[in-house]
Design goal:
The chain is of the alpha+beta class. 16% of the residues are buried.
Amino acid sequence: MTRHKKHIKLRSMYQWHRYVGVTLAVFVILLAVTGIMLNHTSDFKLDKKYIQSDWLLDYYGISAPEEISSYAATTHWISRWNEQLYLDNKLVSHQSPKIYGAIYYQGMLLIAQQQAVLAYTPDAQLIEKINTPATITAIGISIDNKPLIKTVNGLYVTDEQLQSWQAVQQNTATWSLEKKLPEKLYQQLLLQYRGQGLTLERVILDLHSGRLLGQNTFYLMDFVALLMIFLALSGLWLWAMRKIKARTHRKTKSHH
């Protein structure tokens, strides 16, 4: 190979090295920044921060659940969206079992789950969890104005202090029935529910891996990784060529 051809090859490699370097600059900065953020997830509390952007939530397909259980208790509403439990417009539980009704009793809101009744204040503070004698299927108010539950083993009524349950035979009661949420409250809760479905950590992780742009986009990140390998190898090759060239130049000069 002539000296002229070697010079052309070396210049061509310099050009490719420069082009790849410029192209990778954006990806390197992106990977570095997102990598640092992910390494400090706890410090930045990325898993506690939720995305509120409508277009990003739509992009991830986060929408309202198909089934929403909701019950009215006087002027208050209790609703369960998947596993998230709301009292009016306040989230009271991220992981709530299925609910079977809610009643208002002595200034408290009693929410029936399968194995317990939860007592809340009207401003969404949990007072206590009341265990029940059997699996609940409904809750209501008895004819003598006491909390009454319907279970797989029959009817049970509790005392005024909510401390004990007693089996009863009566069938007359005002039962809590599912109702449709008012539209205004529904829209408020929809915004909250969607906003609790996507953490900043997940978005940054998907951005870091390339999956944010689609399930197959991580192949792009694989290609970027290959370009990084090329950049490293071409840099080493150019460094070696310069060393060899400098050494050859010194030898030639010493002979003169």
